[in-house]
Automatic annotation (TrEMBL):
This is Uncharacterized protein. Keywords: TPR repeat. SUPFAM superfamilies: HCP-like. The keyword NAD does not apply. It comes from Flavobacterium amnicola. It comes from the Bacteria. TPR repeats lie at residues 213-246.
């Protein structure tokens, strides 16, 4: 009888392990392989044809300044599809030409240039333009939406909230996505998701494919942060069903394969394919993170070298300052460089994220008291980002404030998907 009971226990244990393994498996190559194989030429060809069309019209009638905005818009689309940074600078060049010709009197063209600066992380310049558009007065609501976006990036949260209240309309997509972002900033992720779901329904009701893609891809991201990985995956698939070349959604699926399923082979396969179509340094950072998890120092160094080579060959301005500061801060021999970048970021955008870079740089230089002073004043209680809170916990630990570490540790244990599998051991050691 004892032997029989033991056999039952063994079978039940094996079944439980099997079920756990099965539930951990979310991705299925059959779901997305067709999207990986698709060659995005239609949208690229269309944008290039549009550029040629409007350029010829402008050459024939140089006084028609509005044609420049049409050309700029299509260069911006090419950047979204290909990741080629030169398209962003071409967009800027055309919008500057257009605004100068119009003597900065047309709010639509001013706002377009401000959005270009947001993409480049030139937030203070974007704010100047947004205020210029506001002073003109025309299309005030659209300008207030822009002002909310810029103020959030700059960490001017009181001003951002004023603009959010000014555009309040619970039936409008643009308002819903912004109040979702606001609630996410406040740390209320369930409400943020609920509002983004409403935005998605609004886009569906309006049959607006572009807005559906925007809402679905963001829901994929948000559900991932909430630890609801299956829902995250399904929203990425919904995004791809509408836009097969969407690199954000494909990268999201690669992250699920890596962070949730620990399937580094599949994650690398996806990244290798999409990085050939969408040229971005981000992919080297992810490959480096995967190599770190695999304890492959040689590959990690190779991908980091590829990342910095790409930054050197292309002018990304300050767009990768945050990543660079974190990379340099983790090595005591380069922590001084991280400190300089962090100070630059604070000048550009004095947010909790930027101050975290400064505090983390001082921590890695061994100045724990300075790190604590900055973190307590500018980071603690001001952000719900897991990586910032991990840094905060490490700074508390170094200052022997263990009573403050444990609550953060417990919270971080629920954020391992977002942080990545390499963080699990770091969190355990807190």
């Amino acid at each position: 009888m004892k032997t029989f009971n033991l056999a039952i226990i063994l079978v039940m244990t094996l079944l439980m392990v099997s079920c756990e393994k099965e539930s951990n498996q979310i991705t299925n190559r059959k779901d997305y392989d067709a999207y990986l194989a698709s060659k995005e030429t239609k949208s690229i060809d269309f944008a290039k044809n549009e550029i040629d069309f409007w350029q010829k019209k402008f050459d024939a009638a140089p006084n028609q300044i509005s044609y420049l905005s049409q050309i700029a818009s299509n260069y911006s689309k090419l950047f979204e599809i290909t990741g080629n940074i030169n398209y962003i600078y071409k967009t800027e060049e055309l919008l500057l030409q257009s605004n100068e010709a119009l003597k900065y009197t047309q709010v639509g063209t001013i706002r377009a240039l401000a959005r270009n600066y947001i993409t480049q992380h030139r937030f203070k310049e974007a704010l100047v333009l947004a205020n210029k558009a506001l002073a003109i007065g025309e299309g005030k609501k659209a300008t207030q939406k822009l002002l909310f976006d810029v103020q959030m990036e700059l960490g001017n949260y009181a001003e951002a909230e004023k603009n959010l209240k000014a555009i309040q309309d619970p039936n409008e997509f643009d308002f819903l996505i912004r109040i979702a972002k606001w609630n996410d900033h406040l740390g209320d992720l369930p409400t943020a998701i609920s509002l983004m779901e409403k935005a998605a329904k609004r886009a569906e009701k309006d049959e607006n494919e572009g807005l559906k893609v925007w809402a679905y891809s963001n829901l994929g991201d948000m559900y991932g942060h909430a630890g609801q990985i299956k829902k995250s995956y399904n929203y990425y698939l919904k995004t791809l069903a509408l836009e097969p070349h969407n690199s954000y959604a494909l990268k999201g699926i690669a992250w699920i394969a890596f962070s949730h399923e620990k399937n580094t082979t599949e994650a690398n396969r996806i990244i290798n394919i999409i990085s050939k179509k969408h040229n971005s340094p981000d992919f080297y950072l992810m490959k480096s993170e995967i190599a770190e998890y695999e304890n492959n120092k040689e590959k990690k160094e190779k991908y980091m070298s590829n990342y910095f080579n790409m930054l050197q060959k292309n002018n990304y301005g300050v767009m990768y300052n945050k990543y660079n500061a974190l990379i340099f801060a983790d090595d005591t021999s380069t922590a001084e460089i991280a400190l300089a970048i962090a100070n630059q970021e604070i000048k550009n955008r004095p947010t909790p994220d930027s101050y975290d870079l400064l505090a983390w740089s001082y921590y890695n230089l061994g100045d724990y008291k300075k790190a604590l002073e900055i973190a307590q004043k500018h980071v603690a209680g001001k952000s719900f980002e897991p990586e910032l809170n991990y840094h905060l916990a490490m700074i508390y630990k170094s200052n022997k404030m263990s009573n403050l570490v444990q609550p953060i540790k417990e919270d971080l244990l629920t954020s391992t998907f977002e942080l990545g599998p390499s963080f699990q051991q770091k969190i355990d050691q807190l």
